[in-house]
Amino acid sequence: MKIRLITFLFLFITSAAFSQNTLTGKLLDAKNGEQLVGATIKLYNPVTNAITQLDGSFKFKDLSSGNYHIQCAYLGYLKLDTVLNIGSSLSVVFYLQRSSTNLHEVTIVGVKDGSSQQYARRAEQKSDNVSNIVSAKSIQLSPDLTVANVLQRVSGVSIERSNTGDGENAIIRGMDKRYNVTLINGVKIPSPDNRNRFVPLDIFPADLLDRLEVIKSLTPNMEADASGGVMNIVMKDAPDHLIVNANAAAGYSQIFLNQDAMLFGKGAINLQSPAEINGEQYLAKISDFTKSNYRYSAKNFPVNSVGGFSIGNRFLHDKLGAIAAFSYQNNFRGSSSVFFEPSTQPNPSTDKNTDSSPVFTDGFFRTYTSQQNRVGAHLKLDYHLSPKTTFSLFSTFLQLNKTEYRHSIDSVLAIQRVGPGQGLVEIADRSRYEKQNISSFTLQGKHLVSQRFSADWSAVYSKATRKLPDFGQLKSTHQVGIDANGNTYETPFLLLSFGRDWQHNTDKDLAGYLNLHYYPTLFKQKVAFDFGGLYRHKNRDNYDNKYTLSPKSNPDGSPQVFNGIDQAQFIFNPANAALGSASSNPGVYTFDEIIAAGYGELKFLILKKLEFLGGVRFESTAQNYETSAPISFVGKSGSISYLDVLPSAHFKYILNRKQAVRLSYYKSISRPAYADIIPFPDASTSEFYTLNGNINLKHTQIDNLDFRYEVFPGGLDAFMVGAFYKFLQNPIEYALKQTTTSGQELRPDNFGNATNYGVEVVFTKYFGTWGVSGNYTYTHSNISSNKGLYYRDTNGNLTTIYVEQNRPLQGQSAHIGNFSLLYKNVKQGIDAQLAAVYTGERIAQLSLYRNLDYWQKASTVLDFSAEKKISKHLKIYAKANNLLNTPYEVIIKQPNRFTTGKLALPAQNNNSYILTQRDLYQPSYLLGLRYKL
Q1: Where is the TonB-dependent receptor plug domain (predicted)?
Q2: 775 Cβ neighbours under 8 A, 6+ residues apart
Q3: Strand, coil or helix: what is 117?
Q4: Which residues pair with 466 in a beta bridge?
Q5: How many CA atoms are closer than 13 Å to the CA of 644, on its beta-carbon side?
Q6: Distance separating alpha carbons of residues 879 and 143, to the nearest angstrom
Q7: Are the C-beta atoms of residues 832 and 866 closer than 8 Å to each other?
Q8: What pTM was estimated for this model as a whole?
Q9: Domains of the chain (ranges, CATH numbers)
Q10: How high does pLDDT run on average in the chain?
């Protein structure tokens, strides 16, 4: 086969025959002009090698004038051999032809490398949806260990962090986590969360993935409850040859250089409450409650450890493919926190044109130690029964165990504002051991019935569980006073209370999917008709049983002095508190849900370059729940049902081989979370407020528009710019509701209608060994809700009125940006990345009152990662996170009157806003080895 060679010669300097010259060039695909990355260029006489960089370029320096034999080789392409006469520095471009071989009566079973960066770019380009894809190779090179942290690198995505600073949940395009859906290999999975539908993303170890797909527009064949986006976690696939991968690493969290890690024993924790062990009417004894999980020991410099292993191959003449992968992470995290708790009643303003100001009653100063033990396992089998029939089995198991110790000092702030007097300081030590797991089994079949008809199906069983056994706090208190001379004094600690709580929940899905595909020829062009549907039965149960142990008084009736957990003595007061709360707690419930859906969609070319995909989806929702609350309790049980008709239309205009324009419309929904509907108080999820449900919640309906222009120049380069618009009917958000004159709780509610729109820009560009990658998203949303205004009228009377206030959606940041500086030297085997993530300010929590919402401050997080090849099969790698020690800060946007005087609060260092919370995490580091056969 003829080999085409085009050489461009550029004369840079005139030189003598003995001068030293430079040869630069690029290696491209002869068919489409794409850069060939990682190809080998050999220059003979003498022999020297070069590897093409990420833009397909190569370079030889210090060459004497003369003739050189040059050879270009790349897997899947014909070799190119030629001779160049180098009399001066020059630049060349070589085009390689793809190799091809005609085979007869041979069945080829091949697997695409879905983990490569090149595959991710091509998949984005060819997708029917607006999507962003992160490959396993990109994940491996990133600073991230979990899917939650990987997601923060994707355009339009910001993450919510846990109290250890690690990512936990994703907000996509300003849409709260409730509007997003998580899939494993295209199939929805249940959630271990005790209240919500969304899946906590920190349960997924990143090294089990083939790729991570974030899909931002829905076609009719996709489930409709994902208005922000779909996070499809594609697990490792069976390879077409033997692979063996392993990695091991160790590191530390810098915060434990300044404070000890506080640990407690988990082995003696009773996984079931006394009532579960002995019966619902059992009167618990004090001896039923172990004290071992409230005995703490300090550990200096705890070591973080990470490991993983995968192996795969094909068997039976390549008909059977298999891969097994395992991941293990044991990480210690910590934080220090300050939080100021507001009074339910703000300080009244002087008139109705001025906002009320906050009043803080308590200041909490807390330190955390958290041990995260994360395990993941995945098995994939596929069997090609014939060229027309394939069966696959996916099995995934994920487990995240969190052991958390919290030491909290609650200082009553009033004592520093009234001069001489006294107040209480409360100490609380909390032990929390939480176990979450997800297991999923999917059997799939693909059948090519004829050239025009095919079908595929999936049968799915999945289960998610969460256990929070013996969760509680040991509280003690003492008085701190200020005498007439301004000196402070304090009294001995008195034992206050000992709360113990057992919670667990199970979420089980049994589902079936069927898709039929018909490809007729109409009007001389091939058309695709797709029909299908799903049926899912979900069963969720929840258990919550609380016990309160009261301190035993001294014989003389005086309160018990606290001298440590082993000397503390408790009783039940009143005596029937020994029954616990399960028998009448609406938090003990079962919830059944049936989703039945059907769809039809059509795909064809309207014009030569204009693709159309459109159709309609029907989703029926039927729900029933029953709680153990008393019969008179409003919301003890309920039934809810509705049907949604959801049209969509997607256009893709292909400008040329590298450029396209997309325009999409689709209608979607968001169902309330389970515990959003059931009215039971729960203090285990929120740090500072009790959460409750709302039986009057409606589901949300959303109209979505998307536009994107995209360019894929070749190689790993890409540029995308797009816009989106969403109109939400009955959006659901959490807001503080006043329950008593001194109490308030977080409760979900519908907030009228809302709009959400924005623009996204994504770019990746390589220049030889260096590259830049980034994205920026601007999002604007608007929602109107009633807010209280507490003021004194002209007669001096206290008055509360309600006014409309416009604001963004809760959790939505106007500005989100990512920027990464990349270095990749293929010849030396070096990859490095310096990655920054910017998240703009957003509402963290809504208030009942105007302009008293809590805002999370804007933040920039800087991470670093690198790897170096040290032998043919071995690499060393390093990851460093939160290099800037970026804090999590929450503020109220009002002039700060708490910086000086009697109202002064700690940690207030800005006059233009009021700090209400600050959490510090400090950096963490990891160093490891990676093996690849």
Answers
A1: 128-230
A2: 154, 155, 156, 760, 761, 762, 763, 817, 818
A3: helix
A4: 436, 505
A5: 26
A6: 5
A7: yes
A8: 0.86
A9: 20-96 (2.60.40.1120), 117-235 (2.170.130.10), 250-466+491-932 (2.40.170.20)
A10: 88
